[in-house]
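Name: Polygalacturonase
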Amino acid sequence: MKLSGCNLPGIIVMVFVMLSSSSISAITNFNVLNFGANPTGGTDSTDSFLKAWNAACGTADSTFIYVPKGRYLVGPLAFKGQCKSSQIIIRIDGTIVAPLDYGVLGKSNNWFSFEDVSGVSIIGRGTFDAKGPSLWACKASNSNSCPSGATTLSFTNSNNIRINGLTSLNSQMFHIVINGCQNVHLKGVKIIAAGNSPNTDGIHVQLSRNVEILSTSIKTGDDCISIGPGTENLWIEQITCGPGHGISIGSLAKDLKEEGVQNVTVKKTVFSNTQNGLRIKSWARPSNGYVQGVRFIDSVMRNVQNPIMIDQNYCPRNENCPDQVSGIKINDIVYEDIRGTSSTPIAIKFDCSDKNPCTGIKLQNVNLTYLNKAAQSFCSNVVGKAIDLVRPNSCL
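Structure predicted for Polygalacturonase:
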């Protein structure tokens, strides 16, 4: 059963029906063109988008912002909350493009940032094109002058958020971040970036409750979905991932005092040529954090390097590793109906903390092979059980 707190409210369903192409002109209250936006991309439309938001935010009624077809050159924007309107619907049918100079966005944390908002829906078939390749090339050159880069779409300390049908293309850094939010519904989104693009996580969730991510395609250079501390009641279903680093809880144990991750369901996923499939990762350092109540159900692996993995000695590139012992407590993790192919001999790897062994790990109906032959499993400091068919043979 899905989380009842994340179901799409009836009012949003009604709005989706109302927003047919034949009715847009009748119900559009705030069209960005009326605020001076240029649909040819020839001049900067940043101020026009902000004026449209301020007009909608300052209206007591439910409001609607429309971005029609076209190309809109837009720089970094922060949309602040405390609005009079309890519901703001933003429909994007055009393409929003970043400035050619990657430094314009790159020096900001976010491109489109929504802060302390409530009842905001972003819908349509539009695209955010962050033009990330030029910044990625700068980073690949090992230049010290490269900015960190911006997240394309960020929601912070916000409630009752809906994102439906959009495309995020070539983000400089993370594509979508959900941070400190409640009741978020994301569906039908497409995320696209090169497999070697650095730190371009598809969707990152942290410090948030009651989040649904459904029917979404993610092709990127880092985690397709990353799940940070303080995530509770997260439902992920019908996700295709690849290229990318899989779906990851963590990395955790960045800090000694860290909130836990609990009640996470990942269901009906397909991983193609990814670095990882279903992964939990933590640094080998003290922490009071935890992971519990996770269900990985019905996943297909296609040539995945690490289909099933718990790594409590996480240290990418083996640089500046803490070389301590992970304090993260991992308990009650279920892998059910996982099948497909591993591109490496070890298809199941549980490398857990010798101070806090992984407990309550369950494998059920798992069938993973390597080059059309038997794969292997590896277990360290893990307690659990295997039920029904489990291949490779479980070391639990």
